[in-house]
Structure formats: C-alpha cells, structure tokens
Amino acid sequence: MKILLPVHVGEHSLAAAAFVASRCALIGANPEIVLLNVQQPAFAGLPTQAARERLRAFYAKEAAKALDPAHAILAAAGLRAQTMHVSGQPGPRIAQTAKMIAADLIVLGGPRRPPAAGALLGSVAAEVLAHCRTPVLLLRGAEHPPDRGMRVGIAVDGSPYGNAAVKYVLRHLPLFGVEPKFALSHAVREGALQVQALLANLSGAGISFETMRTLREQAFEHALRTPLRLFARAGLAAQRVDLAGSPGTAIADYAQRECDLLVMGSHGHGLFSSAVLGSTALRVASHCKVPVLLIRRP
For the domain 147-298, what is the CATH code? Predict the structure, then answer.
C-alpha cells in the first residue's frame, strides 16, 4: 500500500504520522510511505541562480521542521519513509503528488472541530478532493483512532460508490487495527417516502402505514444487499444500522455516537465542495468530529 502523508508543523500532523505508524507496525508490513511538505511560495521570478539556490535552501530548512518529527515517529515504528517538499498551494500540490506516485491513500491531519460547510470550500481537504480521486482519510485532532476494537461505520446507499467504500475497507483491513467492529448503515430518505405517500393519496390510491413500512424496509435491504454479500464473502460480520431522516445529519449524528471512524463513498464532481463531495458527504465531513475516510471512485 502506498500512503501519502502531507505534514506541516503541529500536533495534527504528528497524530497522523502516529496513526500510520501504529497501523503498519501492527501487521509488520512494509508499505510505501511518502511524507510531503508544501511550502507557500515566498518569492517569484528571482533574477539570479544564486538567489534561487538560497530560496531552495530556505524551503528545505523550513520543510525539515515538519518532515523530521514525522519521519522520526515512523522510524521508531521500524518504517521507512521517503520525504519530499515542494512549493505552491497545498491542496493542488498534494493532489498532484498523489497522482504522480499513484498513492492508494492520502492521510490528512486536522483540528478536532471540523469547519462549517462554507469554510470547507476553501480548506486544504476540499482542494485535495477537488483535484484527485485518491481516497482521503481526514483525521480529527491530536488523537488517532484506537489500535484495537475500532468501531468502523460504513455508510452505504445502494450506489456503486457505497459499494466501493466497502471493497476498499475489505482490501485494506490492517488500516483498522486489531479486531475492528464493522457496522453498515443506511439512512432512508423519509422525505421521499412521504412525498410518494402524498401523491398516492392525492390520486385516490392511498398508501397504508404497512405499505410505507414495507417500502422503507425495501430501501434499506436494497442498500445493504451487496455490502452484506461482500462481508460474507470475506468471512467477516457486520452490524446492520437502520437510520432515518436527512442522510447527512443522520449519518454524522450516528458516527459521533457510535463510531471511532466513518467510511463513506462520495459521488460528487466538480471544483466546489458541495459538488466535489456531494451534499451528504459534505454535511458529514463538515459536522462529524470523528475521522472520516472518503472514497472518491467506484
């Protein structure tokens, strides 16, 4: 597995490095890890070679302040890591590097309290998601999820993107530590069922309470059919969690109550947060305080 770990000076990057170190140490694997620091451009169009050399030395010195502590954490776990530093805007440069090295995962450390939806538009995470389709793990705060018995929620919706999230989890089980506990959740859109009932009643056909409950159960079973089959094929158990209400709110509330980490697929597209993440994933990423693993491709 090839992991891209962007780092800056601060506890959040160190926590992200500690998470990667703990997962890789648990399985005794030898993953490819690339530590990346992005420096904001200091000057442009320097006139002489000597000036450009001094600027490169400045970038290297500043990058080392972020790279060396993270590298030490990985080395203490017996892991090797390549270090890189570049200059430019962090989001696009991280995305470019992920594409260049063909990363399987980008791990981003961030504050415990996620930004509001509007603030997310300009965040590094949103820019990374806008410019590449590599899965992104958003860690929250200075602590990382537990090494043993991690409660992993996987939000599914019956789409190829939700199924892709399940497949990614099953391909990379060591990321979730020792004896993880998995739960497959689906939030049935109550509003859609209510509209269907209203239209039927207006037409004179009518929909009974029992019919509404059956439709709801059918929607839940449809969303979980393929994920449950994939888990059974892998010889693993997964709890079924039936949620109700607005999917973004219901999933975020459930994750904060019951999960150490949430995994979900995202089928948005475009260069704006609401389009890149899709409305449900945007709401979850903006309001959920637990780490979120976003899978961007089916």
Answer: 3.40.50.620
